[in-house]
Amino acid sequence: MKIKSNIPNGFTLLNLLSGVIGIIWVLQGDILSGAYFILISTVFDFFDGFAARILKVPSEIGKQLDSLADLVSFGVLPGFILFKMAEVQSGWEWLPYFTLIVPLLSAYRLAKFNLDIRQSDRFIGLPTPANALFISTLPYLGISVPQVGVWLNNPLILVIVAWVMAILLVLEIPLIALKFKNFLLKSNVFRYTLLGMAALLISFLGLAGIPWVILAYISLSLIENGIKRQ
Fold first, then answer.
1. More confident call, 229 vs 182
2. Residue 63: which pLDDT band, with cuts at 50, 70 and 90?
3. pLDDT by residue (tens digit) across 46-55?
């Protein structure tokens, strides 16, 4: 076994491990910690691809392993976060189970992504890490903005959020990818705008700013799509 060729897979397995530990914490009732484990998984997810490119050791097994790890960290874990949030508030035992549409469509999106050659410079549908970050930081947004927290205490609202975000995963809409072919302002104005907004929102609001960043990401992508059609 060549150590060099398995360094990216090591990062992928750490991504998976972080997701599994996050699930355990959430099931034990620590919903807030779920966001930190998703953030950790996001870091490892970045470094597995980065290491594969730098070391020039891309592999088919690495691609498949990455999707399996992402399903746990960015599909199952955020699904469980929404489930536990709804379960705490719901008077109907069956209602929280409707939030599990998130891991189901996350699996579908990841399988679709592996086969879709159109997503080299643009994402088609919401990426699973972005969806996971949005869902996992909703509790922080609810704490930061009590008016939003009131809505998030409604299990029916949480089910609606789950279905809207899950549908966005597989919806055929092009979304911005932070892949720069050049660094010209004209070519990357929406990317730079998104990065600037993200820096400001997270600087001032911390984790509570991430849901706003994801909403800005979707909105800017839709605006860019509208301009390109003209």
1. 229
2. confident
3. 998 888 788 8
